[in-house]
Amino acid sequence: MPDRAGAGGVAEADPGQILEAAQRLAQGRLVAFPTETVYGLGADAENPEAIARIYAAKKRPADHPVIVHLAPDTDPGYWAALIPPQARQLMAAFWPGPLTLILPRAARIPDAVSGGQDSIGLRCPSHPVAQRLLHAFSVLKPHGSGAVAAPSANQFGQVSPTRADHVRSEFPDLDGQALMILEGGASEVGIESTILDLSRLDRGIGPVLLRPGHVTAARIAEVLGEMPARPDAAAPRVSGALKAHYAPRTPLFLADAQALAGLVRDAGAAGLRMAVVVLDAAPGLAPAGIDWVVLPADPVVYARRLYALLRELDGAGYDRILLQRPPADPVWQGVNDRITRAAAAFA
Questions:
Q1: How many Cβ atoms are within 10 Å of 344's Cβ, its own excluded?
Q2: In whole angstroms, what is the distance from residue 199 CA to residue 206 CA?
Q3: What confidence score (pLDDT) does residue 10 get?
Q4: What's the longest Cα–Cα distance across the chain?
Q5: Binding-site residues from annotation for L-threonine
Q6: Annotated binding site for ATP: which residue ranges?
Q7: Which residues, at least 6 apart from 183, have a Cβ–Cβ distance to it below 8 Å?
Q8: For 292, which of 107, 271, 282, 343 could close a Cys bridge (C-beta 3.0–4.6 Å)?
Q9: Is residue 338 within 8 Å of 243, Cβ to Cβ?
């Protein structure tokens, strides 16, 4: 049995399980594993057939890139054709951690990981199980530069998993031979990594923030001395950047605090069952069938709890989920990005 407790007292994968998972990756098979952001669905990043299994399992469009996860001691220069000084600065500041860098892809690396583009997304996760898996896999690779391509371990466009049981519920048709799932407790960050494009510096295009996350634009600017720009029309395609994404199956809507009372009243009058997620405190009594769900007005805690809560509410039989829109402050940018895309699926 595993002997190491993860977040929430959940046992983590033991060394034997880590070795078995690494061997499966080397055989071209799928392994789901925990990271500090969300759980990933992983395959050998140099094996196009294995990467194709990720896309098939997730029902993911072939032109939608995945992120390549590196062990802390792996040379990113094996995967990227160029590592500019700005990338080295950010790696030193935030790796291991929830920051993905988009860089020019090395010619030896299959374009399956980048959806046919000449760029590649690289990240070094900080979760100990992810690091142990990546290290064990690297040992099995001839050049010692093993890395794992891994989008979130869920059906494409749905809520990302932050626990191992979430992964199991997403892939009921894949048995233990088709998919091994490593346990590692609940993800600490809870939303996907920040994605920063540095692939076009040689063309005079500075850093571009393609997906906000736990590593904020302000923190990036502290390292680079400039704020990253907003996405432009020519920016590389990246994970999680579609207008509608991260969505539960129950219709989800956003509303400012001032509009909540009216929407709750209308839902009650219509006989709808609705969960209303509010910040800090419930406003008061609600009509029958309306349940208040309170989350703290803290962007870090909110992000950590968001996806697990959406999954819980999704399975509770509600007709609708209504979220109070968080503040528009920069520290909430990652959360606001995720819930805005989730709501867009029902617009």
A1: 16
A2: 9
A3: 57
A4: 66
A5: 37, 69, 123, 150, 193
A6: 60, 152, 160, 211, 246
A7: 2, 6, 10, 11, 12, 13, 34, 129, 164
A8: 282
A9: no
| pLDDT tens-place string over residues 19-49 | 999 999 999 999 999 999 999 999 999 999 9
pTM (two decimals): 0.95
Arithmetic mean of pLDDT, 53-78:
94
Give the pairing type, strands 274-279 and 252-255. unpaired
Contact residues for 254 (Cβ-Cβ < 8 A; gap 6+): 322, 323, 324, 325, 339, 340, 343
Q: In sequence order, which residues have a C-beta less than 8 Å from that of residue 36 and are 6 or more positions away?
A: 97, 98, 125, 126, 127, 130, 187, 188, 189
Distances (CA, A) of 64 to 101, 159, 261: 16, 17, 39
The answer to which of 35-49, 73-87, 153-167, 229-243 has the lowest mean pLDDT is 229-243
CA distance 44 to 149: 6
Which pLDDT score is estimated for 241?
Answer: 79
Residue type, 301: V
pLDDT of residue 13: 84
Contact 162/190 with Cβ under 8 angstroms?
yes
| Rg value, the chain, Cα | 20
For 146-202, write each residue's pLDDT tens digit. 899 999 999 999 999 999 999 999 999 999 999 999 999 999 999 999 999 999 999
Cα angle 198, 152, 63; round to 5: 60
Sign of the alpha-carbon torsion through 98, 101, 102, 106: negative
**Residue position matching structure tokens 């891994």:** 150
Residues making up the annotated binding site are: 37, 60, 69, 123, 150, 152, 160, 193, 211, 246
